[in-house]
Design goal:
five-stranded antiparallel beta sheet, SH3 type barrels, six-stranded antiparallel beta sheet, Myoviridae_GpU, 2 helices, 2 domains, Phage tail protein
Length: about 240
């Protein structure tokens, strides 16, 4: 790990990084570093049950997580109580921020503290904490996702009848899972037009099997007809 050194009042300070209002640094007067840093992540895949082996569909990258330990000690120039309170405040207020190592963030996204595990503190005769080990777990927060504001929809002009409205209704489906992709073609590689949500109901105009069974939602829109994801009421 590379340190960035600065001269502060004749004292050499090596800045290691920062997160959650805590600056990780090493100097002749203060040592505040993290250890046992670990990071993990995964990918999100959906399995579609079909005859034979299931078909896997890549949904997107998963949420990354990381953890690290801090030894906060007065003998190392750190106020353990103040440092722990900063971390608690960051966690309890739902704050997010960049995790910096050296001069760069470890991710293009921000991070939030999901949990803090405080070890047994060493206390002096005045009741002050003089040393404590803290384990911190953090999770990635996708800062580039725009908040969705719910607005009252404006009245839309009357539309001309489309091909979907002239088709015979095959039945009504109910979405059984949290999210289900609505595609522009009967294929798991088809363009995703929108995401259907659990409990929503839609009229369908037929069913056809390609790579998996698909319901025709009309208007060039299709969704999975696998019973794990949808239920059908005919008529």
């Amino acid at each position: 790990m590379c340190f960035r050194s600065n001269i502060k009042g004749g004292e050499t300070v090596a800045k290691i990084g920062s997160f959650g209002g805590i600056t990780f640094e090493v100097s002749t007067k203060k040592v505040l570093t993290f250890d046992t840093f670990s990071r993990s992540g995964d990918a999100r895949w959906s399995e579609h049950e079909v005859k034979g082996k299931p078909i896997s569909e890549f949904i997107g990258p998963g949420q990354e997580s990381a953890s690290f330990s801090l030894t906060l000690s007065r003998s190392l120039g750190v106020d353990p109580t103040a440092a722990v309170e900063k971390l608690r405040s960051f966690r309890d207020s739902g704050k997010t921020g960049a995790f910096i190592i050296g001069t760069k963030s470890i991710s293009k996204n921000y991070w939030y503290i999901s949990s803090i595990n405080e070890g047994e503190p060493l206390i002096d005769g005045k009741g002050r904490i003089i040393s404590i080990k803290v384990d911190v777990s953090i999770k990635e927060y996708a800062k580039d996702i725009k908040a969705v504001s719910i607005q009252k929809p404006k009245p839309k002009p009357a539309k001309k009848k489309t091909a979907a409205s002239t088709k015979k209704v095959y039945g009504t489906i109910t979405i059984k899972v949290g999210m289900l992709n609505c595609r522009a073609s009967r294929s798991l590689k088809g363009k995703i037009l929108k995401v259907l949500r659990k409990g929503q109901k839609f009229k369908v105009y037929g069913v056809k099997t390609t790579d998996i069974p698909w319901y025709d939602l009309g208007g060039g829109k299709y969704c999975s007809a696998v019973s794990k994801y949808t239920s059908l009421k005919k008529g």
